[in-house]
């Protein structure tokens, strides 16, 4: 059973079709990479898969449970099985790194609405949060305010939180977009680790083809809201890969011409 699945997902905004029957299956233990030109629908698909956006037709499945129709507490429960690592670092800057990781357990254990302050957390949770931080190499930063960490370190905190959350699926939307190559590779290395060692199903959208080749077990090309290819990177014909981005260049040029 795949960790995450989209079945013929359709989405439109204001009558404009953005996703046109997307089928996607993200296996546990593997890193699946989502490629596509600007505007091809990657972020929209990711938002639909995380339940942040409602789909118009089709189905979304998380670890064998259909999630697209869920609401209220059922939706919140299903969202806890999916951890997100977004381009805009989605951690809380003015609290400690440790607290950010601890927040991953919110909802899974009976915290209050606002979570629990680190000093009051049960010992086993504190230990686990430290273990998760150690796994991403940031145990020595536990007490630092999260905003003082570099972008790459903040992404690693988000991955530690995913571990704390005991997520079954990790979805990362351009997690290395604003990082230098070394920090980007460190984040990708960790995403591979959580796939291989923790059996998570990992879906990552990327623009850097070098990283796709190095880290992708599977590569899914999205073109104008449809899946254009879904295979190993090496198996994608070069002209097909170029065409994925060429249309964007053509579209950009015609937009600029008409401006
Ligand atoms: N909330 C929204 N309301 C209206 N249109 C939207 C909304 N979100 C996305 N779109 C449109 O849907 C299309 C796909 O956008 P999306 O952000 O999914 O593309 P993307 O492939 O992630 O692009 P990028 O690589 O630039 O992030 C775009 O034309 C965008 O303008």
Detailed description of the structure:
The chain is of the alpha/beta class and about 260 residues long. The chain folds into 2 domains: about 1-80 and about 170-259, P-loop containing nucleotide triphosphate hydrolases (Rossmann fold); about 90-165, no CATH class. Helix content is about 35%, strand content about 25%. It has 8 helices and 10 strands. It has helices at about 40-50, 70-80, 95-100, 125-135, 150-165, 180-200, 210-215, 240-259, and strands at about 5-15, 15-25, 30-35, 55-60, 65, 80-85, 170-175, 200-205, 220-225, 225-230. Strands 6-7-8-3-9-10 form a 6-stranded mixed beta sheet, with helices on both faces. A 4-stranded antiparallel beta sheet has the order 2-1-4-5, covered by helices on one side. A hairpin with a 2-residue loop joins strand 9 and strand 10 (about 225-230). Mean pLDDT is about 90; it is low at about 250-259. The structure holds adenosine-5'-triphosphate. The site of adenosine-5'-triphosphate has 11 residues, from helix 1. One of its GO terms (molecular function) is ATP hydrolysis activity. InterPro entries: AAA+_ATPase, ABC_transporter-like_ATP-bd, ABC_transporter-like_CS, MetN_ABC_transporter-like, P-loop_NTPase. It is a peripheral membrane protein.
Concise synopsis of the structure shown:
Helix content is 37%, strand content 24%.
